[in-house]
Design a protein that fits this description.
This protein is an alpha+beta fold and 268 residues long. The protein has two domains: 193 residues, Beta-Lactamase (2-Layer Sandwich); 64 residues, Winged helix-like DNA-binding domain superfamily/Winged helix DNA-binding domain (Arc Repressor Mutant, subunit A, Orthogonal Bundle), CATH 1.10.10.10. 59% of the residues lie in helices and 14% in strands. The protein contains eight helices and six strands. Strands 1-4-5-6-2-3 form a six-stranded mixed β-sheet. The chain starts with a strand and ends with a helix.
């Protein structure tokens, strides 16, 4: 039996009597979701795109889910701060907005803080979230299952599954979801690493471009005045400080003016 935190006083619903065909179908859905996770990094998606795909895979892999979402926490933020999230349906977005932006309570936040799966089969009666529960009831949603994404003993996010029916997530659903959550945590982590690497590469490329135009501007000043490279660079810095304009912008302007003048002389 999977370990999880449930609504206080909740009597666990009886496990559904699944046929072998139903067991096989659930396993196939889980394996399809896991295969999809493996392809996410290969496809070099952004973090938001990756989260959306993970949420879609989770909705299929967790039995009984009518919709799902994936939420990522900001690293080491105290108090808890949500960094980003993706959902499979608009009603899930409304629920998560109630959790993160309105009431600041709910199964995802509980799971993120306890690092344990969190289950509720009747959200409106759940004493853990008195304000959130009533708001969600108006959306017609009764059941929630939140699964922490744990990597190196740190919770980096949560998978949230929701259902309109009461007690939609029994132990079987928790077990299947837990099997999915482990690889999903790795997929989220890898997607974040890949995006960070891409951002660093873009920053480096911009820095190289900036350095190139500054070198060109230094060369122009030297050609005009005959000063050394150090003196030409110092002049650029002084202009930057006097005009309160970034150094690379001063260099770009100088190069552009010089090029325009050279073209005008060539055409005259």
């Amino acid at each position: 039996m999977a370990e999880y935190d449930s609504r206080p006083g909740r009597i666990s619903p009886p496990e559904p009597e699944l046929t072998q065909a139903q067991h096989d179908a659930d396993e196939e859905d889980l394996q399809a979701g896991l295969s999809g996770l493996a392809a996410i990094v290969v496809d070099a998606l952004t973090v938001d795109e990756s989260l959306t795909h993970i949420a879609e895979f989770a909705a299929h892999a967790i039995p009984g889910a009518d919709g799902a979402g994936v939420t990522v926490a900001h690293p080491s933020a105290v108090p808890l701060r949500i960094q980003s999230w993706a959902v499979t349906a608009e009603f899930v977005r409304k629920i998560d907005t109630l959790q993160y932006e309105v009431h600041h309570e709910g199964p995802c936040i509980t799971s993120m803080r306890t690092a344990r799966p969190c289950v509720s089969g009747s959200i409106s009666d759940d004493a853990r979230w008195p304000r959130f529960g009533g708001a969600v009831l108006r959306l017609g949603v009764n059941s929630a299952l939140s699964l922490p994404l744990v990597l190196r003993e740190q919770v980096i996010g949560v998978i949230n599954a929701y259902a309109y029916t009461l007690d939609a997530f029994a132990e079987h659903a928790v077990a299947m979801g837990t099997k999915f959550a482990g690889p999903a945590a790795v997929a989220v982590h890898n997607a974040r690493l890949l995006t960070a690497a891409q951002q660093r590469a873009e920053q480096l490329q911009r820095a190289l471009g900036t350095r190139s135009v500054i070198d060109q501007a230094v060369g122009i000043i030297r050609a005009r005045s005959g000063v050394s490279a150090e003196e030409a660079f110092a002049r650029l810095i002084k202009i930057s400080q006097d005009d309160n304009v970034k150094l690379h912008v001063v260099a770009e302007r100088l190069v552009e003016v010089t090029v325009r003048r050279a073209r005008a002389r060539h055409l005259s």
